[in-house]
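[agent] plan:
  1. take the single chain provided in the ticket
  2. run structure prediction with default settings
  3. attach structure tokens to the ticket
  4. add a short note for the reviewer (M.T.)
[agent] executing step 1
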Amino acid sequence: MTRMIKRSSTTIGLPPGSLVHIGEKRDAKVKISVIDYDEKNFEEKEIINAEECFSFKEKSTVTWINVDGVHQVDIVEKIGKYFGLHPLVLEDIVNTGQRPKIEDFEGYIFIVLKMLYNSEKDDEIKAEQISLIFGKNFVLSFQETEGDVFDFVRERIRNSKGRIRKAGSDYLIYSLLDAIVDNYFVVLEKIGEKVEVMEEELVTNPIPETLQSIHNMKREMIFLRKSVWPLREVISGLQRGESNLIQKSTGVYLRDMYDHTIQVIDTIETFRDMISGMLDIYISSVSNKMNEVMKVLTIFAAIFIPLTFIAGVYGMNFQYMPELGLQWGYFIVLFIMLLVGLSLVMFFKRKHWL
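[agent] step 2 finished; step 3 output follows
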């Protein structure tokens, strides 16, 4: 549930724009990296102080400043103030419980979305908030922790592959968004494998642990839907917006990314329907298994009821019972009991109950 709602009582009563970090408490040092480039020049370095990146603002080249860690609000505040970011934007950056959204300000566009990845440690989906701001010649990205899905973008910039070094900041922001959306397919592929395994377990051997897995998957899909569904509005806002920061040539790529986003959402909805149906399958499988058990027990009961009746009759202490004087009476009764049992088994088989 903590993944669904991230709110803090510490913000109650504070004025708008107050910078209070809301999210997982971290002690790691904030890492700031800068990539500055154009078609002919390239520069990449890590900086220690936020002030070191201020000199890139006035350059005509495209500058990408990435900040790993938003728990130190003073660093976010310094960078934000120098680049002229609104206090409410800075508040949203340090509040990691934001819904994916896009806001168009004068001179820059602010985007919030979720970066998803599979955690091998506890075998569940993790989400990290990514805040992106891009202006005429700069892109700022704020992440919760170090590590992301942007390595391919960095390699393309370093090796000047494709048109990224020839284009502006709008194409860079598209490349970052596209990398995040493409990683959604990796997450969904892993979920698809889990769904197939659960379906096989439901059909072959449903156990209580399977039911728990279904409930866990339902929570995962709710979390995924909450994280991904609003992204459609974000991409649509970029595609159909009238901002002069987005070149017409980039609109084609944004439309393609919008199609990918719709495909991701459709896949999530499909998985949700499949997982919802799994609960019915589980109940049906358990009921069928119980019916088989009851069927066997009923057959045993039906076989032994007449035998018990015969044993009960000959167990009564009557003074005059003709069969008690028979030399082979005991064995005759056993033979009759065996004959009755076999007759009932044949009857059940003829009725296809066995």
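[agent] step 4 note for reviewer: Helices lie at 73-82, 87-94, 151-159, 169-204, 208-228, 231-240, 248-313, 329-350.
[agent] ticket updated
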